[in-house]
Structure formats: C-alpha cells, structure tokens
Specification:
By secondary structure, the chain is of the alpha/beta class. It contains seven helices and nine strands; from the N terminus they run βααββαβααβααββββ.
C-alpha cells in the first residue's frame, strides 16, 4: 500500500462581483488568473520528483467555472510538460459554501431582503464569516457544513488512492473557505486558524495523508496565506 499525497489548489483569480458573498458566481478567470493556473504546473511536477510520487491521471475539481477553468488550464500544461494525458472529474461536493436562493445578490441586497421579510431576524454583523451561521433561505448552508461536505469527499478519495501500490499524488482544484473549514474538520487547522489563514490563488499546498484513517494530515510543501483582516472577501471564498 502506497502513500497518499494531495496537492490542494485554490482556483486562480477570477472576475468576481464586488461585495457579493455567494461563492457560486459563474464568472471566468481573469487574464492574470489564466497565467496563474498555467504557472502552477511546474510546482506539481517538482513535488512528484522530490517525493517520488505518481501523479494521478485525474484532476478533481469543483464544477464552478473558475475552479474548472483553473483545473483545465493546469491539466493542459501538465500534459504538455509530462506527455501524460490528464482528465478532469468534477464533484459538487467540492464547491464553495452556498447561500441558497439569494445566490449572487450583494451583501446589501441580502440584508435588505432579511430586513423586509417578517419571518427572519436581522443577521449578526459578522454573518459572512461566522462558521456556523446559515442564511434562512432554501439551499443555504453554513461554512462549517460546506467544510464537512468537502472533508467527506476528501475521505472518499483517500480510500481510493490508498488502494494503489504506488505513492500517489492527487491534484484538487477547489475553493479557499470551504477547504479551510474542511481542514478544521480533518484536524489540519484549529477553529481559530480558519480565520487566521487564507490560500494564495493557484499555489498548491502539498499534504501527506495517513491512509489508515484519513485524519492525519502533514503539510509537506507550500504556505498558507496570512490574512490581514478576518473581514476580507476571501473569508467566504
């Protein structure tokens, strides 16, 4: 039974609608984001060589456009550099936190809806970054719930990869907030560290994972981004 490694990549920079906490925005990467996605490939190859890993032929990603586009550009670049054909597999389990039926409304619009709906209370001031607050709309989830969903998907992938005899590297392109909350679910981060850290666009974090229980994660390469403020938009993307 081989070792299991994950290269966890936050999507590249995208055309983000301002002051809008819905991380299911359907917008593409910026020109800079496209270059970020491509430039990630040499680092992945470096990891395979340094740790003697076999690159899994499938890159897993969120189906949200910016994550899929990042994974697609990275896949093409890796294929070009390694002469190994890679494919993509999307899973809705890897998406960012969903705010349900108010998706893609601005913060002001969402709060205005809540103020004028007699069924709902005014949300707390820090509702966007509160790990356990869930907007009272159909389909909404809390950041913690999104993190558990992502963690469940990662556990499934660990079980699949652990069946190989080779030391495997699985590349995933996902979202910052849901992965940080998944990291807390998996014991990688403490609850306090969720707000302390963010992730750089299209820069991989390399983790070695125990195949025995999937809850022993060790950061082998890459760096978390230190947040300047817990109110940054990245708290919910």
């Amino acid at each position: 039974m081989g070792k299991v490694f994950f290269a966890i990549i936050r999507h590249a920079e995208y055309e983000q609608k301002a002051n809008t906490p819905s991380a299911h925005q359907p917008y593409p990467l910026t020109t800079r984001g496209e270059e970020q996605a491509k430039s990630c490939a040499p680092k992945i190859i470096e990891y395979t060589q340094q740790y003697h890993l076999k690159l899994d032929s499938v890159i897993d990603c969120s189906p949200v456009l910016r994550a899929w586009q990042t994974a697609s550009l990275l896949s093409r670049q890796l294929t070009s550099l390694t002469a190994t054909e890679l494919s993509l597999q999307t899973s809705e389990m890897l998406t960012e936190r969903c705010v349900g039926s108010v998706a893609n409304l601005t913060i002001d619009e969402i709060e205005n809806v809540l103020r004028h709906d007699p069924r709902y209370d005014v949300p707390p001031a820090n509702w966007k970054s509160d790990s356990y607050y869930k907007l009272p709309f159909p389909g909404a989830e809390s950041l913690a719930e999104a993190g558990k969903r992502v963690a469940d998907r990662l556990r499934l992938l660990i079980a699949e990869l652990a069946a190989y005899n080779d030391n495997m590297l699985k590349v995933l392109v996902i979202h910052g907030a849901s992965f940080r909350h998944a990291a807390a679910e998996l014991g990688v981060l403490t609850a306090a560290e969720i707000a302390k850290y963010s992730m750089y666009h299209a820069q991989p974090l390399l983790f070695e994972v125990s195949e025995n229980d999937g809850n022993n994660w060790v950061l082998r390469a890459g760096e978390w981004k230190i947040r300047q403020s817990r109110h940054e938009s990245e708290m919910y993307d």
